[in-house]
Records
---
Amino acid sequence: MLELNKINTFYGESHILKDLSLRIHQGEIATLLGRNGAGKTTTVKTIMGLLTPKSGTITLKGRSIVGLPPHEIARRGIGFVPEERRIFPSLTVLENITFPVWGRGEDAWSLEKVFSFFPALKARANSRGSQLSGGEQQMLAIARILRAKMELILLDEPTEGLAPLLIRSIGVIMKGIKGSGLTILLIEQNTRFAVQFADSHHILHTGEIVYSETNDKFKDDHEIQKKYLGI
Ligand code: ATP
């Protein structure tokens, strides 16, 4: 589905991503793990075209996307749910989900299908974005991307700042959408959350991928978890 090959991304003079290579397979949930400052957000911003790498290739289903503007990359089927969620605070839940219907609109998931994954949001359909809790805002940000029928979704720390009960709800949603054929790249600090449904894990350390393994292997790799994630 997605392949990054020897990506080098800089902020000014700072060399952040160093020869980063990564392969995400269709239909899987893959995680990008790593300590603060490892380069996880820089990686998803590079995939999304918000940052342009100095060198390296990125392909989506075999077609190059490197150098394309973010809106074109979105049109090709990559959805991004940033850490800060970016929902419209003055619009209702329903309006947030139904607007904007752009580009891939004709294939959009029906509202019923979207709400079937988020019963809590359905109950809040007429509430404004600004009235939602952090967890509801996170669900709305994910729901909006599902509605747009993306093929690959980049989720930047969906559990950040959420209470344990809400983290559990997001986990249930992740398991639910996993069966719908979507491919997900999940950035997480909360490894215990991610191992419940992820298929593979990639660990970033100072801008380099130092580990890529299946979930089964990773779960028992306590040495790696301690070395790179401090668990
Ligand atoms: P976190 O979990 O803290 O968000 P991360 O793994 O997502 O960490 P990045 O945000 O990708 O890490 O940051 C990687 C490195 O790039 C860090 O050293 C950070 O200080 C640096 N960095 C991030 N944003 C900028 C920026 N706008 N300008 C300069 N340096 C930046």
Note: The mean pLDDT is 90.
---
Amino acid sequence: MASSSPRATITACERFLPDRILTNEDIERTVDTSDEWIRERTGIAERRILDDQPTSFMATEVAKGLLRRRGISGDDIDLILVATITPDMVCPSTACLVQDRIGASKAWAFDLLAACSGFVYALVTGAQFITSGTHKRVIVIGADRMSAITDPTDRSTCILFGDGAGGVLLEASEDDSGLIDFELHADGSGCDDLNVPGGGSLWPATKQTVEQRLHFIRQEGRTVFKFAVQRMAEVSLSLLQRNELTPQDLDLFVPHQANQRIIDATANKMKIPADRVMSNIKHMANTTAGTVPIALSEAFDEGRLQPGNLVQLTAVGGGLTWGSALLRWGTAA
Ligand code: UT7
């Protein structure tokens, strides 16, 4: 990043969670599992479920909230980016639906797919248009209605996921706040470790693909678990190191919320004190692209983010994808 370019800073953050709560006890009634097993193995107690609405509904609520918090209108937005693996439709993008609903008449809009790393990927992408001076205001949202692609009869996945969305508004920084640096990665050889095989051009929807349950998310749980811990710690430390920082310099570490044991193991590897690690998985479960911005928005509303704080966002997900972003917190709404 050239030193003369402004940093992209977060000037507002927002989240949307559906009202309906699905508890572990509710799931006990439908598959062979227990509240005890789920809490012990994942740290999850409950998740939110969106009924009768698509992902764009949650993303639009987030976008409206960002405009409200910042006191601006849709016309002030130049670009809308939505990270999701549960778009309303294959085409058009969910971002275009949000663009229309908030009246962002001057904005262009597109979706970005990097699964659970989606928000970190999208944040970095959106920031480039601020840093280059091309755009003044960019909305970046991570939103997933995971209940739409989760097999309610598969106990290895139905316990893990929830619905939700979060997002941020990016603008040019007038001080040293904003995105300091990032590191992003992909390894497509891990495609089979975590995927939703049906509904694309490989397996277009047919009676057979539905019968074979190919439209649901599937994963190699243990493989993904180990990969997540190793890569999240590795990329976070690498990014800190090249900026001559250490985990002890962080005011808040916001990891992807996939499993409390993954969060704890990553924090332990990095030697970050637990009180500087954001976790809300107990009540939200894994909302895929939503986890990081939802956690960020909660942390902000709880007063855990103050101007000047050093914040690291790190995620891992299907692709496989992983990455980290380092921010200096500014003045947000
Ligand atoms: O966002 C990125 C996407 N996903 C992830 O990050 C998930 C990463 N993986 C995980 O979080 C964990 O691997 C899981 C929570 C999915 C599973 O936990 P685990 O400790 O790795 O369990 P396991 O898959 O090794 O299974 C242990 C046992 C098995 O039984 P046997 O073969 O030992 O008899 C499973 O059949 O637990 C069984 N099991 C369950 N038992 C009760 C699997 N799911 C359940 C369940 N309730 N819901």
Note: The chain is about 30% helix and 25% strand.
